[in-house]
Write a sequence for this structure.
């Protein structure tokens, strides 16, 4: 987590995302023509400062992972622009994009699925060193792999073993070491602890915080509930059906949410103090079909505070107080 910067020291954001849209075509009929689209990401904009952690939270299918993958160009966005250190990625040639993508890495939810079971851990971590020619000799390669293993809390001897010999938490550490091999500046952490036991989750989050302090890393930390990102995030963006519905400094969002969806997610976060009672807001139904999202405010069929206006008028994400934005008519 970073300390807030004074206005005098403010610099351009490391990452700027503007009006990002991703529609996945649905093909059907005899000739496999496009018959409709899944609106996975629907006009997402945000900025991320160097050294900052932005938590991105929402239910499954809200577009948070697709947003991360579009930023990394693992998925080509339908429209919208992404700037990294002031350079617009869509305007770059292949070589420029390749060099820039080295600075942005991803950590996956299921480290086992993303680790090649036939490769040793040393080869998995060192693969990027070879691809990007980052080691000038076999001994330098080995030194760097050993250093990366130590950095994430693993033993140098682990480089000769295979992924199946490790626990889930250790595999996530291998995934983190692999991401760090190319000295990135931005890590997109795509639900990195969702598949882990709670005690192991804390260890991995602590490791990520230590690495951020040591290397000045910037994180986009994706999770499906607010409790996971509470302590690691400087700011939190809440997504619903492809859109950001609220984005705010973490402390503000957790104490005074400005969107009913954030309120509902927050009501499910356990409070460690047993004397403090929080009323659980149970949302009716599931996230609606992203092929035909509801009219007006996408959240209106499930919102306990919806009015007639919400069914016809789309609320705009706008500033509700300095540094905070929300998309809800209740803030008008
Ligand atoms: Fe609920 Fe209406 Fe606000 Fe949407 S705009 S969150 S439906 S109150």
């Amino acid at each position: 987590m970073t300390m807030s910067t004074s206005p005098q020291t403010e610099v351009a954001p490391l990452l700027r995302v503007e009006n990002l849209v991703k529609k996945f075509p649905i093909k059907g009929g005899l000739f496999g023509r496009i018959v409709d689209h899944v609106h996975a990401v629907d006009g997402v904009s945000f900025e991320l400062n160097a050294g900052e952690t932005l938590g991105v939270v929402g239910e499954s299918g809200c577009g948070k992972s697709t947003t991360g993958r579009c930023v990394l160009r693992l998925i080509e966005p339908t429209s919208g622009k992404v700037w990294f250190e002031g350079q617009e990625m869509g305007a770059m040639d292949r070589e420029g994009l390749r060099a820039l993508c080295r600075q942005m890495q991803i950590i996956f939810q299921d480290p086992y699925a993303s680790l090649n079971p036939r490769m040793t851990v040393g080869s998995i971590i060192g693969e990027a060193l070879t691809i990007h020619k980052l080691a000038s000799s076999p001994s330098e390669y080995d030194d760097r792999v050993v250093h990366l293993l130590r950095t994430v809390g693993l033993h140098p001897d682990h480089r000769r073993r295979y992924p199946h010999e490790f626990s889930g938490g250790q595999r996530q550490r291998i995934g983190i070491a692999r991401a760090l091999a190319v000295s990135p500046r931005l890590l997109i952490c795509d639900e990195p602890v969702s598949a882990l036991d709670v005690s192991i989750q804390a260890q991995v989050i602590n490791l990520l915080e230590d690495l951020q302090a040591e290397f000045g890393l910037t994180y986009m930390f994706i999770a499906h509930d607010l409790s996971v990102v509470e302590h690691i995030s400087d700011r939190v963006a809440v997504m619903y059906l492809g859109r950001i519905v609220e984005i705010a400094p973490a402390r503000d969002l957790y104490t005074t949410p400005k969107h009913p969806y954030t309120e509902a997610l927050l009501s499910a976060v356990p409070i460690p103090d047993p004397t403090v009672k929080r009323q659980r807001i149970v949302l009716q139904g599931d996230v609606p079909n992203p092929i035909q999202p509801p009219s007006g405010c996408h959240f209106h069929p499930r919102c306990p505070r919806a009015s007639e206006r919400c069914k016809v008028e789309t609320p705009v994400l706008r500033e509700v107080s300095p540094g905070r934005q929300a998309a809800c008519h209740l803030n008008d």
